[in-house]
Amino acid sequence: MNPEGVTTDVGHRRYAVRRLTLTDFRSYRSLRLETDADILVLTGVNGAGKTNLLEAISMLVPGRGLRRPKLTDLAWRNGDAAGQGWAVAARVETPIGPCDVGTGLDESGGERRTVRIDGETVRSQSALADVMSAHWLTPQMDRLFQEGASARRRFLDRIVFGWDPAHAGRVAAFENAMRQRIKLLRAGGAPDTVWLGALEETMASKGIAVTAARLDVVGRLSVSAAEGWGPFPGADIALAGDLESWLADGPALAAEDRFRAALATERSDDARSGRTRTGPQRSDLIVRHRPKDQEAALCSTGEQKALLIGLVLANARTRAAEEGGVPALLLDEVAAHLDEARREALFEALIELGGQVWLTGTDAELFQPLSGRADFYSVADGGVTCTS
Fold first, then answer.
1. Which of 52, 90, 44 minimizes the C-alpha distance to 69?
2. Residue 303: burial class (beta carbons within 10 Å; 0-12, 13-18, 19+)
3. Does some domain include residue 340?
4. What is the sign, positive or negative, of the torsion defined by CA atoms of 148, 154, 159, 160?
5. Please, what is the average pLDDT of the chain?
6. How far apart are CA 78 and CA 100, in angstroms?
7. What angle, rounded to 10 degrees, do the helices at 193-227 and 149-163 form?
8. Residue 110, SS3?
9. Domain enclosing residue 293, as ranges
10. Cβ within 8 Å of residue 283, ≥6 positions away
């Protein structure tokens, strides 16, 4: 089932959580979990807190985590009583050695969080991409190909963070400049053209860099994605947008000039609409079912899920083949709606990849093919118990 020529014996070239400590996070008042397992199966009834564990790990990479909540909503709650803060800390295995990383709600309040790496507070959560890589699938993502382009961009950007840790900082810088530009344009009166020009300069340089990084990763993944993996079909993937077209037409500096000129020309329209017409925030990840030569959005629900899993596997195995650190995979209820053949094929693929995988489900029987090859945990009442 492993495609010919792809090496998946990654050894230490992976990211894995070896110790996870939660304080006042979601349903966990306090939790400390230590593991040397590469595959962990978490089972329990709905609402037991399985997804909360995956969400905690997802907060160790840049972004807003797998459910994108308000940071204050992550605090432990008991009825109407809620905690004032929360913290997630972990000892993680990385391709260059172990690292201690942690994040939590800023004690000053509001929607800010602090990040510490090996005991040192860092200025931006973008630094997390240097020491931890994780990718996830949730039931809500089953509609990725039906929803708007923003969800597909987030999906792609999480992949790019693993290949290029600086990408997180560039995305954040672009989005910050874009927000400030719109605020300035809509403030009324004549805007400060010097400050406006500086913001557009930042948007042009960061926006083209963001687009170039996305294109690079899509190019890296295209061969592996097209091959597919067993019952997970091959996919043709591409990135579409104005900036992508400009980069295809010439060098990056010329594309920056075109983007900068477009921003200047569109100031009036952007001021009226309150949105930026041109930029990487308008790009879309295009996916086609290769064997059927059909847009992913037109495929059946089962085919779309298989395509999505195939893309995650393609990223992990390409990272392995190019000697990058294989990301930790957080797969929430991924087995529930797969037929038996695809479910067993997925388990075999995950074992062959050699990275760390966290799986959740309500029915432990679905994971029996992993018996003896995974650690099983029962999740209930704010606690986690190893059962094998």
1. 52
2. middle
3. no
4. positive
5. 92
6. 29
7. 80
8. coil
9. 147-324
10. 149, 153, 211, 214, 239, 240, 241, 243, 244
Distances (CA, A) of 209 to 16, 149, 168, 341, 377: 29, 19, 11, 41, 42
Q: Dmax of the chain from CA atoms?
A: 69
Residue 351, token pair as written in the block:
């074992």
> Comparing C-alpha atoms, which of 41, 7, 98 is closest to residue 357?
41
Listed residue (20, 158, 38, 18) closest to 93, CA to CA: 18
Query: Above 80 in pLDDT, residue 3?
Result: no
What are φ and ψ of residue 217, in 5° steps?
A: -70, -40
CATH number for the domain that contains residue 198: 1.20.1050.90
- Is 285 within a domain? yes
Q: How many CA atoms lie within 13 A of 238 on its CB side?
A: 10
Phi (first) and psi of residue 9, to 5 degrees? -80, 85
CB 279 within 8 A of CB 203: yes
Name the token pair of 367.
């994971």
Give yes or no for residue 357 having a pLDDT over 80: yes
Q: What is the residue type of 24? A: D
Segment 70-121, tens digit of pLDDT:
998 999 987 555 557 899 999 999 999 999 999 998 766 667 889 999 999 9
283: DSSP letter: -
- The pairing of beta strand 16-25 with beta strand 87-94: antiparallel
Listed residue (65, 60, 134, 104) closest to 325, CA to CA: 134
Closest CA to 276 of 262, 294, 289, 256: 262
Does 324 score more than 50 pLDDT? yes
Geometric angle at alpha carbon 283, from 282 and 286, rounded to 5°: 140
DSSP 229: B
**pLDDT given for residue 108 in this prediction:** 66
Residue 231 counted as domain residue: yes
Q: Which amino acid makes up residue 14?
A: R
User: How many distinct structural domains can be found in the chain?
Assistant: 1
């053209």: which residue's tokens? 193
Number of H helices, E strands in the chain: 9, 17
Q: Among 188, 170, 190, 189, which Cα is nearest to 178's?
A: 170
Rg value, the chain, Cα:
22
